[in-house]
Amino acid sequence: MTPLLLIAPLPPADAAGEYDWAQAGEDGIALRDQGRALLTLLPSSPEVTLGIPSAALSWHRVTLPKGSMGSTSKLRAVLDGLLEEHLLDEPETLHFALAPDAKAGEPVWVVACNRIWLRSVVQGLEAAGRRVVRIVPEFTPQPVDAPPLLLVTGEPEAPQLTVCDSDGVVSLPLAGAGLALSNGLPLDTAVISTEPAVAEAAEHLLQRRVPIVQAPQRWLHATRTPWELAQFDLAVTGRARAGKKFASVLQALRFAPEWRAARWGVVVLLLTQLIGLNAWAWKERNALESKRQATRAILTQTFPSVKIVVDAPLQMGREVAALQQAVGDVAPSDFEPMVGAIAATLPAGRSPSAIDFSAGQLRLRGLGLQPQEVTQITSALSPRGYQVRTEGDLLLVQAEANR
C-alpha cells in the first residue's frame, strides 16, 4: 500500500487539527480515496508523505561555490550567506532544501519555508504515530526544455494562477492584473489545468476550455517528482536514510509507468522458470517411476511366486538366497565365503583366538590388528560386499544385505 499523503495546514491552523489527505491505488498513480479529517481520525497508515502548500514556500536560484557541499553544516552556512539579501526573514528562522542532483559551481534552485512551522508539523505527526517518510512541495520549477505549467487553483471568490517554468514558481491572482503580468507566457505550448471550483473563472478569463484536475490528484502527481524537502536538520541519516532511499526505489520499480515493461518481463521470466521446473520435476518423476516398474517386472518375472512387491531389491536378494540354499550353493553371506575372504586379507602371522558366526556376521577375536591394518582389510573387502568394523579387540565382518 502506498503511503498516505497529508497536506500540511498553513498557520495559524493547529498542526494537530484537520488535514486534507489522499491515497493512491496499488498502481501508485490513480487516486483511490481522499478526504479531510482530524489527525486522530485519518486513515490507518504508519508512514505518510507530507505535502507543503505553495503559499508556504519561496524559491531562489543561487550558484554554489566550489567545495561548499563537503558537509551539511558548511552548506547551510553558505546558503545563509547567499540568500541573506533575498529573504524577508532571518536565514536562521528558515528551512532550506536544494534541488535534486544539485552541484557546486552550477545554478541550483533552493526552496525556503518557515523552520519552526515545518518542524512543528513533522513532530506533531510523529507524536501521533505517523512517521514522515518524505516531504514534497506542491509546485516545483520546470526544466529548461519542459513546457511551462499553468494551474488555476483556490476558491471561486479568489482564484489563483500558478506558473511553473524554468524561471521558478509564481502565484498570481487570476484577474486582469495577473494576466497582464503573465502576457509573456507561451500559452499555446503551456500545459494548463484547473481545479473544479475555479474552472468557470479560468475558462472565462483564459478564453478557452481548460482540463480539470482535482486537487488530490494534483498532489499525487507532486509526489512523483524527485524533490525532497527533508534536508539538513530534518534529514534522516544512516540506516534510516538508506531504508528511505530503498523504499523510494522500490516504489518506483513497483508503480512507475516507465518500469511497466520491466515488471512484465520479470513476471514472464518467473512464470517461465516455474513452468520449466514443474516440467523437469514431472519428467524426473516419470523416469524414476519407470525404473521402479522395470525393477518390479524383473522380480515378478524371475520369481513368479512373489505376488506383492514392497521392496524389490530386498525381495530379490531374499529369493536369490533361498534359491542358492535350495540347490546347495553358497551365498556371500554364508560362513565359508566370509571366512575365505577374511583369511585372504589378514596380515601374515595373524590368526583369531575365537570365531563366531551368526546371520551373515562373522566375529573374530584376538587378532591384535593395528588401525592401518584394519583400513587395509576394509578396503580389500568392501568391493566384495563386506563391511568391516572393530569393537575393542573384536573384528566384525558383515555381509551387505543388497549384495
Short characterization:
With 403 residues, the protein is α+β, with helices and mostly antiparallel strands.
Q: Helices and strands in order, then pairings?
A:
Blueprint: E1 4-7, E2 18-24, E3 31-38, E4 47-52, E5 58-63, H1 72-83, E6 94-98, E7 107-114, H2 115-127, E8 131-137, E9 149-155, E10 158-165, E11 168-173, H3 176-181, E12 191-194, H4 199-206, H5 215-222, H6 238-255, H7 260-302, H8 312-326, H9 335-345, E13 354-358, E14 361-365, H10 371-381, E15 386-391, E16 394-399
Parallel strand pairs: 1-4, 4-8, 9-12
Antiparallel strand pairs: 1-2, 2-3, 5-7, 6-7, 9-10, 10-11, 13-14, 14-16, 15-16
Helix pairs in contact: 7-8
Characteristic terms for this protein:
10 helices, 16 strands, elongated, 5-stranded mixed β-sheet, alpha+beta, 403 residues, 4-stranded mixed β-sheet
Description:
- This protein has 403 residues and is α+β, with helices and mostly antiparallel strands.
- The chain is 36% helix and 24% strand.
- It has helices at residues 72-83, 115-127, 176-181, 199-206, 215-222, 238-255, 260-302, 312-326, 335-345, 371-381; strands spanning 4-7, 18-24, 31-38, 47-52, 58-63, 94-98, 107-114, 131-137, 149-155, 158-165, 168-173, 191-194, 354-358, 361-365, 386-391, 394-399.
- Helix 7 packs parallel to helix 8.
- The two termini are 63 Å apart.
- It comes from Acidovorax cavernicola.
- InterPro entries: ATPase_NBD, GspL_cyto_dom, T2SS_protein-GspL.
- This is General secretion pathway protein GspL.
